[in-house]
Structure formats: structure tokens, C-alpha cells
Amino acid sequence: MDYQHIIEDVYQEVKSKNPRGKVADYIPELANVDAEKFGIALVDLDGTVYGVGDYEQPFSIQSISKVHTLSMVAHVFQRKLWSRVNVEPSGNPFNSIAQLEFEKGIPRNPFINAGALVITDALTTKFDDPLEEVSRFIHEVSGKECVTINQDVMRSELRHSERNTALAYFLKAFQNFDNPVEEVIQTYVAHCSMEMCCVDLARSFSFLANDGYSIYANREIVTENVARRINALMLTCGFYDESGEFAFRVGLPGKSGVGGGVASVMPHKFSIAVWSPELNEKGNSVKAIMALELLTDKLKFSLF
Ligand code: GLN
């Protein structure tokens, strides 16, 4: 398969159509990024990298890190975890608090903020230094030497964390949060502030395309069974209240972040990361979604 040729075609087509959105600014530091940036990196199961555009430039991965944190705890206490977080699409914005009341403190899924906070709480219980463990995990699954946390983005989000803090206290009120709220918020915001380029991000998702086995870590990161479930969650919940649309248009499991990144996998074939900072009103990258739609159209295959 001539992946390089295909992603170059996709890149040019998206550039010429030039769909526009708006760079996230509720985390003020994110608004300083160059809105014109656009890159694609595809990594096949042998580790061959295909890239185009700004694919080697680091960006803020934000909510894409929720897939890494979920992968870290899903295999450790799989059964217990699913009693604390559901596996249903929310049909609501990523930072919504309303549903938590009706669902008695059990978040709809691990990718909305409430669910991801429960996962980071579980990490905090499990590890003495959860952030260090997240960095170690990313290092292992991407083969990258060190992962940088953008301090400016982190401080900027910490200054505007009222909503996530409210979600965490609400979870605590329902006894679904074990650790001190401020401590978990710090870790959560820090892992959202990690920076990666498209290549490293695609590599870090490669084990999900490969039945849970990472060619970078040379070991099984999650079992094949857990890998399938994480992919199912990405397909049904990875784009918040636009998950149905992504499944319809692209047909691959994927996860977005408000930094403009999308990471996605085609099981048994490749993982891919696309980055373009302008977002639609659901908080998902406009160009990244168009690029992935064109990709599966050109490849003539998706999950379906
Ligand atoms: N850190 C961001 C937040 O909690 C992540 C949101 C996102 O990428 N959708 O608001």
C-alpha cells in the first residue's frame, strides 16, 4: 500500500478545500498556536513512518492522553474500573456536568472529562508518582526518549480549572473519587499538557492497532481483549457528541484533543495522527476529521 502517496494526496486536498474552525481559547495558552499548522503521520505495524506537512512538530495532545491513561489502568483493574465508569456515548460536550447528576456520579465513559478524572484518580491510587508513570508509559509505547509537558499550557489550564474541579468534587460527593481533588487535577492537567509530534503520537497508538502488543516496548501493553475494548470505546465515544459523525464519516476508532490533534487506528494495519489546531463547535479538529475521511475513502477500507 502506497501510504506516502495517499497521505500526500489527502494533505493537498484538505489544503485546497481549506475548511476553517476556531483555535481553542478557553485554555488561553492554546490560542497562541499557529492556526495554519497541519501535519499527518501514519505508522504501519513494522514501524515504517509516512509523514507530510508539520508532522514532526510537537503540539499539545490534551484529551488524546486519556487513551494512554485508560490503557494504563484498564488491564490492572478492569472489572473494578468498569463499575466506576460506564461505556456509553454521552451525546454531550466533553466537559458537561449535567449527566453526572442523573447517572449518580458514574461518568458515561472514560473520555469525557468526568470519566477521565476517575481514571486519573485510579492512577493516583495505584502509583506514588502517577505523572512520572504516565511519562514512562508514553516513553515505552512511543519509543521516544522523553515526553515534554508544556509548562505554559499547564499553568494556563490550571488557572481555569473551575469546571474540572467542580466535576471532581461532584464525583467525590457520589463516593466515586478517592484522592484529594487538587492533587488529581494537577496530574490530569499535566498529562493533558504533554506535547508530542504526529509521529510520536501515531507510534504511541500503535499497540492498539496491533492487538495490544507494542513493537517499541517489545511487550504486550494490554491484552488483545482489552485492546479491542479500548478501540470500541474510541469508536463510540472518542469525539464526544460528534462520535457518531466520526464513525459515519471515517469509520475508525479515534480520539481527539482540543490542541487540534486526532489519533486513530486501523486495527492490524496502521496507526495515524493528524494535527490542525482549528476546531469545530464540538471541540474536534476540522481539518483532521476531513483528512481521515478522505483517507478511508481513498483506501476504500475502514472498520466496516
Ligand atoms: N485539558 C482539557 C480539558 O480538560 C482537555 C479537553 C479536550 O481535549 N477535549 O478541558
Explained architecture:
This protein is of the alpha+beta class and 304 residues long. Helix content is 46%, strand content 13%. The protein has a single domain, classed as 3-Layer(aba) Sandwich (Beta-lactamase). It is built from 14 helices and 12 strands. A 5-stranded antiparallel β-sheet has the order 3-2-11-10-9. A 3-stranded antiparallel β-sheet has the order 4-6-5. Strand 9 and strand 10 form a beta hairpin. Glutamine binds next to loops.
Key traits:
304 residues; alpha+beta; Beta-lactamase; five-stranded antiparallel beta sheet; 14 helices; 12 strands; 46% helix; globular; binds glutamine
Helix-strand sequence = HEEEEHHHHHEHHHEHHEEHHEEEEH
Task: Please list the strands of the largest sheet in the order they lie side by side.
Answer: 3-2-11-10-9
Total of helices: 14
Beginning-to-end CA distance, first to last residue: 18 Å
Oligomer: single chain
